[in-house]
Amino acid sequence: MIKKLLFLAFIFISVTSFAQNINLSENAKVSIFTCGRGDELYTTFGHTAIRIKDETNNLDVVYNYGAFDFNTDNFYLKFVKGDLQYFINATSFDDFIYEYQMEKREVIEQTLNFSITQKQQIFELLNASLFSEERSYTYKFIDRNCTTMVVEKINKIVGKELIKKVDDTSISYRQLLYPYFANHFYYKLGINIIFGSKTDNKAIKLFLPSELMHSLDKAKINGIPLINKKETLIQGNDIISKFYFVDSIYFIALLLFVLTVTNNKKVFKTYLFIAGLLGLFLSLVGLYSLHKELLWNYNALLFNPLFLLFPFLKGQWFRKTIKICFVLIGIYLIVLLTKPHILLMVPFIITTVYMLWKLQKLENK
To answer: What is the arithmetic mean of pLDDT over 322-336?
Structure first.
């Protein structure tokens, strides 16, 4: 780990020192990398990076705004809270591309039709960021990530908001993200449970690497296309969706069905208590986290914190609480009707309604 940090420090110092004493040649090239998806959760949406290449000056560097440190103190708490610091790093083209070759992830390069002045400006801007306050930034899933940072830099160089989203803005962020989890059922389930109402807004923000690539294809400066060359550097493997029963909604449905057919009061109350803990987490994380995507999470109407009271309620209070829960589930169903993850939640809705109904009947005896 120490050797790796020393190597990165060497790269930073070398590039920065070099940049302070160099003018890019006419042959210099500035390009944008759009990298394909990987198997890890943090690679689900792909990646964006900037390449500066100048053979005359023996320069070929890739700037990456998607770096973070797993060894950060309280990493997961900071990620959930929304104050985890991401940062820009610089590495050689060969080192950068090697990782994607090994993982067989697609890399598409779009060369920007910049003047030599603009090339020099973005080169100096990126290098200045390496050892300034701009090096680190607070990551936000939609509003501030490796793609939005690249958009910001390009727009700054051209002096206007040139790069705008050209993909469909009539769908919600949740609909936009849904297909990315086709091969990962539990990721899809978890993301759709923890995301709140903001992800149901229209997806007008350009924040995904593939969308930036499409926008660059359409962008023009004074009627001239911004991209003068586009090529695939690595032909990635197609992500084949393999069916695994354990990693599917059918497994969850079977598991929930087994719980319901026990018709056991203790089993039902235990399940609802765990669901209540989840609901409490969804409610509190919205207050704790700076991620706006986690605010106003209506899934807490299904995974209801009121379930936590069941072990302590009896008689009339127990029956009234169940009725309140039924009403809240009804509201939840109305909200969910137009949402893409409704089918994901159906097994949980049926299970919860059945358990509440059975508990109500048992209490009335």
So the answer is: 96
Instruction: Identify the residue whose tokens are 């320069």.
Output: 59
Please give the Cα distance from 238 to 348 (Å, whole number).
Answer: 33
Contact 253, 347 (CB under 8 A): yes
For 139, list phi and psi in degrees, rounded to 5: -70, 135
Beta bridge partners of 240: none
Mean pLDDT, rounded, for 282-286: 85
Both structure tokens of 5: 């940090």
Torsion, Cα 17 20 26 27, to 10 degrees, reads: 10
SS3 content of the chain, % helix, strand, coil (to 5): 55, 15, 30
**28-68: per-residue pLDDT in tens?**
999 999 999 877 777 788 999 999 999 999 999 999 998 87
- Helix H segments across 116-221? 116-130, 146-158, 173-177, 185-194, 209-218
Question: For the segment 129-157, what is each residue's pLDDT rounded down to a tens digit?
Answer: 888 887 888 888 888 899 999 999 999 99
What pTM did the predictor assign?
0.84
d(CA 363, CA 365): 5
CA distance 206 to 155: 13
Which distant-in-sequence residues (6+ apart) come within 8 Å of 104 by Cβ?
234, 236, 237
- Dihedral through CA 130, CA 215, CA 113, CA 151, nearest 10? -20
User: Residue 212 in contact with residue 34, Cβ under 8 Å?
Assistant: yes
Q: What DSSP state is assigned to residue 319?
A: H
